[in-house]
């Protein structure tokens, strides 16, 4: 595994301040990435030590400290539903283009909120996931031997590879990899003739196409969501 969430996202995850979609994506990445798991453990320890230091500085009584840790435990338990500390779940199933894929347990609750698949030329399929958040969350399936038109981003694009692989101008990405792009990136993701790809996509703002006839979509709403 070569691509990981950045430190900022891992700290947000460790603190429980991450949004639902990124929380699920990072939890799934952590399942197969000991490097990032160790980082999250460190950030959690730092947060706990900071809380203890603040409590000592304020000279709280032992009873008040117990209340602080009780509230902290309540918060951690509550955050299970927000994917910051995922519960043990069963894997989910995704069916698209006549194929069935198994997705990690941390992603399964998102699958339950999927909409209908939309097809672009029978080569690219997207399904929007209904989450009450500002970002656009989708499952994206790219068939074998397909190139997505080159584009950039008004905000951030986070991608978790769930199955298969794809590549772009910046590298190759395989199952478990987490990639985050912004407006400094122009890329044209593509699959090989031998391998398709299923991804979880999180967009904070629409894509902006930068080449070819796909740029016509930029005229409608200053960009396009998949």
UniProtKB/TrEMBL annotation:
InterPro entries: Anti-sigma_ChrR (IPR012807), Anti_sigma_zinc_sf (IPR041916), ChrR-like_cupin_dom (IPR025979), RmlC-like_jellyroll (IPR014710), RmlC_Cupin_sf (IPR011051), Znf_put (IPR027383)
Pfam families reported for this sequence: Cupin_7, zf-HC2
Domain ChrR-like cupin residues, every copy: 137-201
Residues covered by the Putative zinc-finger domain: 8-37
The protein, known as: Anti-sigma-E factor ChrR
């Amino acid at each position: 595994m070569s691509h990981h969430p950045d430190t900022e996202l891992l700290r947000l995850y460790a603190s429980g301040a991450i949004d639902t979609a990124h929380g699920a994506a990072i939890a799934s990445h952590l399942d197969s990435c000991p490097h990032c798991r160790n980082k999250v453990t460190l950030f959690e320890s730092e947060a706990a030590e900071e809380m203890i230091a603040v409590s000592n500085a304020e000279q709280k009584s032992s009873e008040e400290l117990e209340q602080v840790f009780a509230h902290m435990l309540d918060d951690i338990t509550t955050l299970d539903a927000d994917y910051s500390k995922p519960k043990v779940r069963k894997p989910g199933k995704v069916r698209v283009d006549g194929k069935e894929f198994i997705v990690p347990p941390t992603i399964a609750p998102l699958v339950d909120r999927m909409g209908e698949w939309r097809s672009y030329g029978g080569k690219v399929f997207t399904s929007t996931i209904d989450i009450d958040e500002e970002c656009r969350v989708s499952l994206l399936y790219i068939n074998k031997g397909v190139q997505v038109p080159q584009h950039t981003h008004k905000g951030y694009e986070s991608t978790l590879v769930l199955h298969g692989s794809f590549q772009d101008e910046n590298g190759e990405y395989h199952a478990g990899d987490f990639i985050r792009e912004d407006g400094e990136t122009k890329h044209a993701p593509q699959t090989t003739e031998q391998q398709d790809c299923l991804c979880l996509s999180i967009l904070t703002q629409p894509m902006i196409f930068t080449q070819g006839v796909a740029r016509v979509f930029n005229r409608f709403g200053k960009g396009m969501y998949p």
